[in-house]
Write a structure and sequence with these properties.
- Two copies of one chain form a homodimer.
- Helices cover 53% and strands 16% of the residues of chain A.
- Chain A is of the alpha+beta class and 118 residues long.
- In chain A, the strands form two sheets. A two-stranded antiparallel ribbon of chain A has the order 1-2.
- In chain A, helix 1 packs across helix 2 and helix 2 crosses helix 3.
- The radius of gyration of chain A is 17 Å and the shape is elongated.
- Chains A and B meet through strand 1 and helix 4 of A and strand 1 and helix 4 of B.
- Strand 1 of chain A pairs antiparallel with strand 1 of chain B, so a sheet runs across the interface.
């Protein structure tokens, strides 16, 4: 099916593909700066997004130690893992629910245009 | 529930909230420029979006007469009405499907933050 890009807007924070991907890279690399580099995102911006998420939730989504001998490190907290899992579940649920309508729109496109595969 | 903003990406065109709203205003005002004004969108940009949509689909979504004694006019074609209807259906279906996960994320927000109503 076509690619469905979306973000969820709460009063305190927006969650979109950038923050979700950043959380996944933090989980996988154990580092906010390494996660940012994987997305061509500056260290400063990666930290800003982490701080924005942590401030919006009752408990931080990302635990981190800044600098230090080992160069610092970061990981998802239980709440962070939960938010990430729910975000990806929203994505899947929305895509499945939207699929028949997306296919109907795709059928109206010029020259048998095939919707993008994810 | 929280506001879910999304866009559907095909190879030839992306459909998002801006194009959907523009189509609704064209339907309601009978004019591309009036539709653009309602969205604080320049005449040029409104036309560009219309031309982009019309080029991507097998039949135009918006029929228009440019200028002329009556100042021109525009309306949704049958295909345009169908695409708009399907876009709004995607929105509704996605929101319903996502609702339990959105609520679960909302419950983790600080200070009992209430998700934005649409």
């Amino acid at each position: 099916m076509a690619e469905l890009r979306f973000r969820v807007r709460f009063d305190a924070v927006q969650l979109g593909p950038g923050k979700a991907e950043l959380m996944e890279h933090i989980r996988d690399t154990g580092s906010i700066s390494a996660a940012g580099r994987r997305m061509d995102m500056s260290y400063k911006r990666a930290w800003m997004l982490v701080e924005e998420m942590n401030a919006a939730f009752a408990v931080p989504l990302i635990a981190s130690t800044r600098g230090g001998p080992g160069g610092g490190g970061a990981s998802l907290t239980e709440a962070g893992a939960e938010v990430l899992r729910r975000y990806r579940a929203i994505e899947t649920a929305a895509e499945v629910a939207a699929a028949p309508h997306v296919a109907a729109i795709a059928a109206l496109l010029a020259s048998g245009d095939i919707p993008k595969q994810k």
